[in-house]
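Q: What changes when magnesium ion is included in the input?
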Amino acid sequence: MSQEQNPKPTNFIRQIIDKDLAANKNDGRVVTRFPPEPNGYLHIGHAKSIVLNFGIAQDYQGHCNLRFDDTNPHKENVEFVESIQKDVKWLGYEWGDKVYFASDYFEQLYAFGVELIKKGKAFVCDLNADQIREYRGTLKEPGKPSPFRDRSVEENLELFKRIRDGEFADGEKVLRAKIDMASPNINLRDPTLYRIRHGVIHHQTGEAWCIYPMYDFTHPISDALEGITHSICTLEFEDHRPLYDWILDNISAPCHPQQIEFSRLNLQYTVMSKRKLTELVSEGHVEGWDDPRMPTIAGLRRRGFTPAAVREFCDRIGVTKSDNLVEMGVLEDCIRTDLNETSPRRMAVLHPLKVVITSYPEDQTEELEVANHPQDEGMGTRKIPFGREIYIDRADFEEVPPKKYKRLIPGGEVRLRNSYVIRCDEIIKDNHGEIIELHCSHDPDTMGKNPEGRKVKGVIHWVAAAQAVEAEVRLYDRLFSHPNPDGAKEGKDYKEYLNPDSLRTLTHCYIESNLATAKPGEQFQFEREGYFCLDEAHISGNRPVFNRTVTLRDTWAKVEQQVKK
Ligand code: ATP
Ligand code: MG
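A: The predicted holo structure follows.
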């Protein structure tokens, strides 16, 4: 498909790298990293960062490290470590033999803390969290130095050792950098480097440590130890860059990577913060991290998205420094375009209405050979049965048709896709007046050719009743009904905008029997209905579950037009 032929889109980060390579900076090496914190599943925003970092490594024959930023053990766990690796792989990227963990460097980080103390650039502080905040000052006012700032090197060394040995309680002491309490950049006002955390079991280091390094201390050092050349992160870290540089300038770091910031992805009709996604899961607003309505990679996969479509989306949105709120339609268009080319066609009736073709012999069935894809002969054909009883969709019959209605009406004709033209002769109703069945007759001369002397415009899909397989179909829609649930209205919680119709479950659908052998995750276009895949988690039992990935056309475009008015 188009992706391989298109030249890689450039962006300001690639331009910086081109310049660095031209100047032979870093001896011509390009090493990036993707540093997730294992405190949740990856989402589509992470995909932007993955495609950027791993994509650069691929295109510049460099390397991208997968590194877990695991310095907050109370929020992290192995499930997240594993899901993150699965999702990066699924997106199509490799990180080589070694998975990195910031926790691998705990001993070295401690030694760098000692080095800063010895140089008089770090001190042990006894202020508690509230006091530290109070002393820090504000954007308008400078901070005040801690009364412990001038402890001697010896005392600091001894205290830092005793802290590590577990002599002090949580919050009793911290290690802080000694930089500048009057700096206009608050991040430089003697930031905390280490804090005490007793009684947590770290998923990698167990109970070996009772002190944990802060992100701003850990990150530059991890980058330097791994020989990262370009440390790419999101814009909220721009103000932390002076601290990143300060740390590396004041320790004996093996190299000094360059931090470059870009704007994070925000996507309409969803939320992207891990705190909020965790809340949606833990409060049961969704079924789990891989609920097909979630913007997580696991959710998108279960919904039927392909890695190629997610990568294409990341290429289309590009990489800049400006704030953005990308339309959901862009993501949906990527998957639609991909599946239109790659997914075989099938027929499935989501709201069944039985049709008896009274003119068709009762004991007869035909096997029809039909194309799997209207444009791609290479996808071959399949055989489907046709018989006297079939199902059509309720929406394809109207007793009192509106103007321009081209489907089946009383006394009117319609073509059954891949099959005969039928005419509706009789409507059967139950005693509530509900239509329960149609009696039709077929024109036996219309298989594969137009009827004589008249035009039949409508074409509808169907399945043969005798061989049809009963299935559950889940129609997913956007999780939120507001394009910006996070910032919609002051004081409103994002959860107030949860879309009550984000999942509709249809339990009595009929699908063509060929779909009975579908594999989990396999994708199809259900003709006239959209793109669907067999749910990964629901393959056992006698009723398969299909998830709708996306509709055939952008049904939200109209709604959005109205919102804009
Ligand atoms: P949160 O603050 O919601 O917990 P995070 O950004 O801290 O998310 P990490 O696991 O630390 O989550 O993220 C790993 C990497 O992915 C970081 O380099 C981060 O910049 C990047 N990233 C996270 N969210 C986005 C986003 N929406 N767009 C682009 N990159 C992102
Ligand atoms: Mg983070």
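Observations recorded in class: Residues 179 and 188 are 6 Å apart (CA to CA).
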